[in-house]
Structure formats: structure tokens, C-alpha cells
Amino acid sequence: MSSSQTGDLDAAYRYCRRLNAQHGKTFYLATGLLPKPSRRHVHALYGFARYADDLVDQPGVLAPEQRLAELTDQLRAGLDGSTPANPVVRAACHTVVEFGIQRSYLTDFLASMAADLTVTRYPSFAELRGYMWGSASVIGLQLLPILGVDGDRGRAEECASELGVAFQLTNFLRDVGEDYRRGRIYLPHDSMAEHGVTEAMLAAGVATPQLQALLAAEIERARGCYRRAEPGIGLLAPTARDCVRTAFTLYGEILDEIERADYQVLAGRVRVSLARRFRVGGAGYLRAVRARR
After folding, report:
1. What gap in Å lies between CA 252 and CA 265, rounded to an integer?
2. Cα→Cα distances 99→103, 275, 291, Å
């Protein structure tokens, strides 16, 4: 690789890092606990996911379907050996090849992004879970080769997949109002019906007793995913555990904040305080330094 190509690749990785710093503050904080050589590869995969998600949700000159199709073509060409002009695709392809990451994980992710263009309601959790395979589970599976496994790989993969679902469910519960304004509902319809929640209630923007009960039940569902995922942290390489533990803790506390806010998620996002994020991240940093030594 020539010096100019190396420079372009480094610039692509830096671009992905900036994307994550801007849009994924909790995970960006956690990624800082990884050994420096690993960080840019995590930023590449998260940057690609962020970029694809924005293609679906943000306006542009081309229709979202066309933008997503072009991104898919660029990804396939890059994985087949071409040099993508798009810096996000270039960094992601380099990381996938470098670590031998299963290509289908990225194409499955893009398939879920494409589903967001046509599927706006999910009749059951089983169908929502099918969507989350591509939107969340595969993210955890992409990261495993970078983080490293120090134990039963099959079990580590199960836990990584489950943690992706836990994070995704947390995002769904935090963003109920925001997603509804985009025309999407990620609360299973059968669960809504069981608790007497209607779309009119979501449109009204008020956390009714019915919606509060529904959100309480879905929070418990998400916590079950966290419990099933937690053993996988101990199966990671020691230098990766504090990164994942920090993300695990801070994302899980978003559920606590939803409860403390009395389930008021229709008007805006609840957040874990900046002070709390730095306390958890700081403690993780000290442990991570010891692990590297």
C-alpha cells in the first residue's frame, strides 16, 4: 500500500471516529477504554452503521432506497477488492478484511435498514426480534473478532447477539416519541393491545397509565436480555471487558432513567447524566489500564 493510500485510509478511520463522537456518546466513551489499535476498527464498524442509519432517516437529493442501494453496491465492491471513495465504506471494508469478519453480518444489517423504509409496525416481539437480528445482533457479532474472545466462542457469540438486542430495545424505549414522529413504532402490537395502548395515545404525547404499564413490561423484557448477555463479558479478552462493561452499565441505566422520569418518553429522550457517565467511564479506565499491563 502506497503512502498516499495509507494516508487516505487513516483519514477514513478518523472520519468514522468523528461520526461516533458526534452521534454515539455513550459508546464512544466506552470505546476509549480499548487498547488504541482496536479503537479505530470499532469506530469503523459503528461509523458504517451510523452512516447507513442516517441514509434511511435523513433527507437528501436521492431517495433513501437509492442511497441505500448505492451504499450496498459500494460495500460489496469494496469487499471484493476495490478501493471505495466513501471513507466510511473504505474503513469498514478494511476492518472486515483485516479481521475476517463474516460479510453477511454487514449485508444483514443493511437489509434491516432497508426494512425501515417499508415496515413501520411489528405485530409481535418475535417479528421485531427478526428485525433486530440485522439491526443489532450482528453488530455484536461483528465486534467479537476485534475485542477478542478468551473462552467459549459459541457462548460468547450468543451473549454478544443478546447484548445487541438489549441495547436496541433500550434505544427503542428511550425513543418511542421520536420514532413515532418518524412514522415507526417498535413496540410490539400484541403487547400494546394487551395493555390497552393505542396509536392515538402515542399521538397525544401523554404517558397514560396504559402506556406506563406497557413500558414497564418492555423494560423488564430488555433487562432479561441484559441478564442473558452479561456472562459474555467475562468471555472477552481482558483488555476488552471494561469497554463492554461500561457500555453495558450505562445503557442499562437508561432504563432506570425512564422509570425515574415516570415513563415520559413521548416528548423527548431521557439521558444518563454526564457526571454519571464520567464516573462509570473513569472507573472503567483505571481497570482497563491495569488489564493492559
Report:
1. 16
2. 11, 35, 22
Give the global pTM.
0.92
3-class SS at 236?
strand
111-146: pLDDT as tens digits: 999 999 999 999 999 999 999 999 999 999 999 999
Q: What is the pLDDT of residues 20-71, one digit of tens each?
A: 898 878 888 899 999 999 999 999 999 999 999 998 887 776 788 999 999 9
The SS3 call for residue 63 is coil
Helix (H, G, I), strand (E, B) or coil at 81: coil
Amino acid identity for residue 115 in this structure? A
**Phi and psi for 183 in degrees, rounded to 5?**
90, 10
Tracing cell 422520569 back to the chain, one arrives at: 261
CB 254 within 8 A of CB 270: yes
3-class secondary-structure state, position 149: strand
The DSSP 8-state label assigned to residue 136 in this structure reads: I
Cβ distance 271 to 255 under 8 Å? no
